[in-house]
Hints:
The chain has one helix at 103-106; strands spanning 15-31, 34-36, 41-55, 60-77, 80-89, 92-101, 108-118, 145-156, 159-172, 176-179, 183-186, 190-203, 206-219, 223-224, 227-228, 234-248, 251-265, 268-284. The chain contains one helix and 18 strands. The protein has a single domain, classed as Porin. Strand 17 (251-265) and strand 18 form a beta hairpin.
Amino acid sequence: xxxxxxxxxxxxxxxxxxxxxxxxxxxxxxxxxxxxxxxxxxxxxxxxxxxxxxxxxxxxxxxxxxxxxxxxxxxxxxxxxxxxxxxxxxxxxxxxxxxxxxxxxxxxxxxxxxxxxxxxxxxxxxxxxxxxxxxxxxxxxxxxxxxxxxxxxxxxxxxxxxxxxxxxxxxxxxxxxxxxxxxxxxxxxxxxxxxxxxxxxxxxxxxxxxxxxxxxxxxxxxxxxxxxxxxxxxxxxxxxxxxxxxxxxxxxxxxxxxxxxxxxxxxxxxxxxxxxxxxxxxxxxxxxxxxxxxxxx
Length: 297
């Protein structure tokens, strides 16, 4: 979820909003970097994300992310499917950002931000037998975490509609001290690095934005009662081609599939097979006068 936080800078008093749907389908079972030929397990995570941002001044802004999460886990054994489904309000993230350089003024944007991940979601849901579900099936983590965020974007001089960008998101996790009633659970710290290039295209009288980026994610193993938990944590590399369609001066429809390229997990884990995010972006209030219209995907 934390990888979705953060907007490009806007004029003071401007309010930005993004409403999106995120589908994460996991059916690839791996041991380290090796794929197991197992078609008996699958997991589907659907998230509805509301992202909002307000620009206080040219140099200061606040962004927030709220979520609703639905998860389904299916395990097939001897043609019998065991299915577990959970849904509910997820956790939220709020960050305060310092905008050190603005794209509209210098052609380069640099932002730094940090803030808490707030445990709004439930972390003690039970299955049909009354047994508390594992932490990875809960809508919330039950812990307060620290999110750090950095963003860089640069317009190319030879083609101002083209931008290169980089983003890094770190997550330092706290502990859920009420896990299964009496235990302590801590998700492993993680960081993500994004790098990409995007451009703006005019087809007829319609404006489109196209981009491609690479995401690297590194997560340490989870801990239970201070002991590292097997089969958690790892490294992933994905490619994200994205397309945006401008439906007005202040609105954009976005579609971004995410394709796994490389991964190495700790132990044996079910890893993402495919991911897709679709949403609509809108900005209210004042707009900056920019050299060219640049839409961030």
